[in-house]
Amino acid sequence: MEGDKASTRKLSLEQVETQLATPSGIPDVLRRYSRHELAHIEKKLVRKIDLRSLPILIILFLLNILDRNAIANARLGGLESTLAVDDVQYQTAVMVLWAGYISMMVPSNMLLSIFKPRLYLPTVVIIWGIVSGATGFVQSFGGLVALRFLVGVTEAPYFPGCIFFLSCWYTRKELPSRIATFYSGYTLSSAFGGLIAAGIVDGLEGAGGYPSWRWIFILEGALTIVIAFLGYILLPNYPSNTTWLSAEETAMAQWRLDRENDGVRDEVKTPVFIGLKEALADPKVYLLVFIQTCAVVSMSFTYFFPSIVNTLGYPRVETLLLTAPPYFLAFLFSIANSWHSGRSGEHCFHIVAACMISFVGQIISMSTYNTGGRYFAMFLQAMGAFSAFQIILSWVSSTIPRSKAKRAVALALATAVSNATNIATAYLYPAWSAPLYRMGCIVLAVALLCCATSSLLLRFWLKKLNREADHAVSHEGIGNGPGALFRYVL
Prior knowledge:
Blueprint: H1 2-9, H2 13-19, H3 35-76, H4 79-83, H5 87-112, H6 117-134, H7 141-155, H8 158-167, H9 175-203, H10 212-234, H11 247-258, H12 272-281, H13 283-298, H14 305-310, H15 316-322, H16 324-344, H17 348-365, H18 371-399, H19 404-420, H20 422-425, H21 438-476
Helix pairs in contact: 3-6, 3-9, 3-10, 3-11, 5-7, 5-19, 6-7, 6-8, 6-10, 8-19, 9-10, 9-15, 9-16, 9-18, 12-19, 13-18, 13-19, 13-21, 16-18, 17-18, 17-21
Transmembrane segments: 53-72, 92-112, 119-139, 145-170, 182-201, 213-235, 285-305, 317-336, 348-369, 375-396, 408-430, 436-458
Domain Major facilitator superfamily (MFS) profile: 53-466
Organism: Massarina eburnea CBS 473.64
């Protein structure tokens, strides 16, 4: 009996897959291939999905952030003076986008779990490009607020939709690096946004009778609309209904995710409201939402970054140029940290380390008037906060792997609730608190500590659940009952 238990614990992945019953075992169309040939098919599939989906998703996300942050760059181009907007009204215009944003996240992901991403995602991109471009023609504070709200509504489906979409194609080991690669669109757009705005402010002031800030909205919105049409051509749908995959690739795309989920099919058509109920009933979802909320708060300085850099005392074009280097470093660090997280299969300590880097940046930023020291702090703030956030996204997906509808709702809830904090954080950087912005720095530093502490708590919880699963396997054997094969990623 003891010998049987020992052999059960030592079963290889190949033996386990053989024991699993159809349909969660190797699909019929793949049974004739050797293990080496299966690995080749899988590698070819992943490379094809990478090349078809990641570049266009990144570019569209880059445009998403360009359009969202255009107001921060437009501020230096004269938006406030043209529209007679004061400091509090500007902060309200920043805040109202998030009111629209959070209203659509959960409904959108519930729909995306059953609709085709290749049609759904590019369509919402075109709509937000139109709305954002129209902001360049507003004539009053009321018009600015109305259009910024609509930008939030129309942008809301894209980001959580893309994270959910990636979770439907990539394994838990692959997902962190893919999310990091996708999220690089955020850091790169934040960097390029300053460079593009610098060129527009310097070269298009008065063009067509418009102040330069209007051209920031008009040109970036038009570019978004044009690029979005590529999504209809390039993006896949889901593993079961992507027409340009071969029969073997379709089977492999589904099977490799099924084997991570105890053989449970990832694309079972769970009704969207059942997925909502499942997500709300899982206590892990609430802790994940809190962790991501803290991470979002820690990044709220980005919506005022040009104004923060402006306190260094340089002219407006040089100021916009100086916003780029911190984001470029954040991009490089985030890719490296997320890649290592995926390779090592560990999330928690990678998040904690990133939080501590950004925490140090916040402390330095509010403690010194030295120009070099404050600019150095901006590098630390960006690289830590961005890196922590994108690893958390992959942790949400791997901790709530099934059903597909539940995972979609969990990702949308985490994103919606966390982004709701932007309604309050839009007021953390009033002009009177310059140049140190201590109120904002203190709030962000506390959020980073909460994010790190909660991540450690979640790790302890998941480790306990893994021990319980191991205990169940040692008594019942791998084949007895669902859940015996699944282990949470720490």
